[in-house]
Specification:
Order of helices and strands of chain A: EEEHEEEEHHEEHHEHEHHEEEEEEEH
Shape of chain A: globular
Oligomer: homotetramer
Number of helices of chain A: 9
Radius of gyration of chain A: 21 Å
Helix content of chain A: 25-40%
């Protein structure tokens, strides 16, 4: 199933080399504004070929809203948006068809779908399918902004180089806004330079490298979210693991918090000057019992290294039934983290909007 | 919503001080064996008062299957199981009603539900509600075992003391079975002793401590799981975050993997002696593209320190509108990790069964 | 699946001879008032043995809310209500086990569930399972009343004797209220007497008889309902066919309307004196495009004759593989319509509440 | 919500004058054959302008599968199919915007969506949206055929003229196949001529006329379907009421059955010569307890007269707040039944496939 959401239902469709990829969004209230240019800008941040550390491959992903929108507003029925695939090389994939690429979805997909798997470009498991997530996410971000909810994210780390983390206690609006417009979104530009160095060096070594993306959500009213299986952590994690390459997620102090004592971890409440309830620390990452506390929500997602590397790799030939060596051709991002940054934000937006609509 | 699952639908009900807590399980095939004693054993592992590092509080949680089961087998309709609450002290909670306990669900719950929030014992956010998760999980574990799928978990760490991790490449059946029967489930007993020391010392300091639980799932056929939003990582994480106190989850190399290069991270395929496809490493944690690779699935869940500690804590008095200090009475586990170990296994089982039923 | 609803999720559980039957209701806003006596009254209207045309069998169906309700209000988690089964005779059902009763669910249930089918009393297909529908329906009716939505129903016909139909243009509040309290709910008492005669005469002939129930819903705001698959007709029909014995449903002019010309059928709009838009006729039954028009919603449900009759009936012996004759013992209603009247109202209420919560 | 199904999820999108209309189908097993020509043929049966009793308006509805299908087979991800709208006149709809057409969805849609309602051509409530239902239905029909399940339907009545009904006891394969290819699908051609006469005469009178469609489903294994809310009657009725203009549905003897005695209605079981269990009558319409009995499933759907008629009709001017008279221009079918015949078959197929996939 490629469907997400209880209150809005998002169905992503397409494969890397299908005629088109896209998304239907069911359940948006009529009159919801959809700004095509805003959507396109988020798509552009995800697009390849925009920085010196990205693949040179170009994908002019132009979004078209083919139904559900009239004069920039939803009319009450489901919205469908598509991106036509233009760059479908008639490249020969028969080579790959029996030699699964390590750490790609190929092997389980071959077992699951057999000869029906559309191996071309990774089929439905291609990173290209994060473009429809961005479309739906941008629509959600637009709605959330009107409700006073802001979402920003940055490259928290690449390899062993870490950026300055978000401040968990304040809103940092200017910073959040700035990050949302950056191709290589970091808080500390110097650390950003170091990260680029790590990525370029990996590329030179015919290698790739992973990283972590940190995401911050402000403006959620205390109490947003549902108990047990539909808490904010549940729905955000479900959406974020929909982004290929994510291997972990943590909220607030996360795994570090598991080493702490209660007296350190517990976030003491106090009234601030304006009569608002706040916490002195935010180890909870803005979520208790699945519900927003009113403090910024903070999570981090671990992104594995790009699985496609130019080095020869050991794999199996499923047809011949023997071990073999595979070389993957083509232009691939040595680090997917800078482009995934926009996608994580989009996935978070989809989850948060669904949670808000359940209130 | 307290409902989980697409193919089986699990609805947990109850609050800490309701007449009963329980669960309905809809969608089980008729003729599914349900072994009440097996279910009770998992509940017992979760029960308090079983070890020298647990609260002395007793909760004789006896499960009753009140519908859907006849002669130990499902008859095709939804199963309902309940645990009657017996230990409901007529304690005065009016004290707590306006003073949210730090890092509990109290504050957002008070905002969300207002005076309707059943504050007694933490209401629907109480750790007691993990008992119904254990019931559903034990039912799922029984079904999975018959399908050759095994799930075990252990205390990976308490504070800064770590156990030996699972072997990610082999099945270790004997070890998995052993862990499933242990009250304080560790692989390395010496480390277990150290952990107990950390917990006792925290208790003496009127404090609590967090930890990490590692879970291993074997026997999943390659290809199990669905793309994008219903992959194994998506559904397992959604279920596991249903357990209060979980603040992070990572699969395989997880956050460590985000620091790696592709050439290190990628799991090379090979045919083993018996003609089975295996990987030489298992940084993927047995999951690629949301689907099982056929290697053991490994994940770790970060558990925050028990929020209830005996020390005085700063909080707010929502009625008086002023800052105040709160002392929490009662007997609480200084570390929830040993008891949560059974619950994480149960939550994983629910998610995996739902994924298998979607095949 | 025994689960209904998108915005509230209702899971019915139990079999005729299970320890208990009941229902969980997930998704109710916290603070929703639940009046146990109101619920009990609807259950009582459904109970057998209340009139001279009903079976003398007694089922003292007492509802208990075991979770989710505190001081008569929901506390934000799922509500669970149960009815304990008290009248479980240790009667021998082995006789029935291979001889499906005509027009009961036995035969398909035996094929579907095999030996796991809980044949005792009809298992999960028993009319007893309409009691949990009444519980959920009574909760829904209580909520709807507070929103100004009223639902009433009456016995439209028994055999060939018909009651006066509802007025489709006015609210008839006093009549609706009166019908809601009647054991044998008819508008025209004389016709009611005739109906009783038909039922008694059927009983004397060791036979049973069917009928039609008409239901009226007032107070729905124009626009309530969703397009296509979640329109009012879709969700009401899905719920109403959940009541065993229903074989047809029609809205407004229904099947008669299919014989009409557009110039007769079309409901002309006009402004009434108070500036409200109304229609001069109501052949649409208050629904256009799946949405309420603001006029009373009217539907009728066809109820088949009680399948259990005292006459010998032809059937098969599935064990012996031969044709045989079956005699059904026990006390059965010669006409289920009077008791089903409360259940149809309850089912409609569940559907309407779910539709309203989607707005 | 425009989404249908538990096991396959169908989301219809589009409005009459959107750039495109279409459907996504999520949950189809990989390797499912999709025959584009078969789909197109069903669409053609639904298309206007094909007979002497249909509107002369042409809609060259060409289906394109833009994702999920490769070499005529599904590849495991969701399928998206679209029909581009070509015939979008820049006609002025501002006239209609405040004058709801009687018995159309206009009035409740205006209240619900306000100025966001895409009134052009009826927006999302247009009969055009039955084309995507036909696409999904044709895909389902193709899958069902391979499973031995056949679905056919015919015009049971137009106005007061009735066709010969289906034989409820035999399969009539040749007849079912013949009907599936007919533009004006009737069993008795003479009655068909009479029906055409009624339709032409209505057209001459600037009027329209309703009718009934009967549908037959063979090859369902006994036991198919689920108890209570997901029985065959529940899911078929939910899907069929998704077709605009349907105002009633009945299974088997339906409303006539409600007049019968149990001794007449009950369908006696017997073993036929080949050892198969059959019933001597089929008043149940092949369904008991929501499950297939193995006999043909029979249902009838009541279709109201086309609401658009050329006569002047009374309505309101919502802007001016006064009563007014409306004349609807354009070419409309005087009877929608012949074209709806293919759509009812499609809707039934979607529901039946979803039920089969739940087994």
């Amino acid at each position: 199933m490629n469907t997400f959401g209880e209150n809005i239902k998002i169905t992503v469709f397409g494969q890397s080399h299908a005629e088109a990829i896209g998304v239907t969004i069911d359940g948006l209230p009529s009159g919801t504004e959809i700004d095509g240019q805003y959507v396109q800008r988020l798509l552009d941040l995800r697009a390849p070929g925009r920085s010196d550390v990205s693949t040179k491959r170009k994908e002019p992903d132009k979004v078209e809203f083919i139904s559900g929108v009239i004069d920039g507003k939803t009319c009450g029925t489901s919205v469908c948006a598509v991106i036509k695939n233009t760059d479908m090389h008639s490249k020969d994939y028969s080579n790959l068809l029996h030699k699964p690429r390590p750490s790609h979805a190929d092997y389980p997909a071959m077992v699951k779908y057999g000869e029906n798997y559309d191996i071309r470009g990774g089929g439905q498991f291609s990173g290209r399918l994060t473009a429809p997530i961005c479309i739906a996410g941008a629509v959600a971000l637009g709605i959330l902004e009107k409700k006073g909810v802001k979402i920003a994210s940055h490259i928290y780390s690449v390899g062993s180089v870490s950026d300055t983390p978000f401040d968990t206690l304040s809103d940092e609006e200017w910073l959040m806004e700035k990050l949302c417009g950056m191709d290589f979104a970091v808080i500390d530009e110097k650390k950003g330079e170091e990260m680029r160095g790590v990525i370029k060096s990996a590329a030179e070594n015919l290698d790739s490298v992973g990283g972590v993306i940190e995401c911050k959500i402000t403006g959620l009213e205390a109490g947003t979210g549902s108990p047990m299986f539909d808490g904010l952590e549940n729905v955000i994690s479900r959406a974020v693991f929909g982004v290929p390459a994510v291997k972990g997620i943590e909220f607030g102090a996360g795994f570090e918090g598991a080493k702490m004592y209660g007296s350190e971890f517990n976030d003491a409440y106090y009234f601030d000057g304006s009569g608002k309830v706040r916490t002195k620390t935010n180890n909870a990452g803005g979520i208790c019992g699945g519900m927003a506390t009113g403090m910024p929500v903070i999570f981090r997602a671990a992104i594995k290294p790009t699985p496609s590397i130019a080095r020869a790799q050991e794999t199996v030939d499923l047809e011949k039934g023997e071990n073999t060596v595979l070389e993957i051709k083509g232009r691939h991002d040595p680090c997917i983290v800078p482009r995934a940054n926009a996608v994580i934000r989009a996935a978070a937006a989809i989850a948060v909007l669904d949670a808000i609509y359940s209130e």
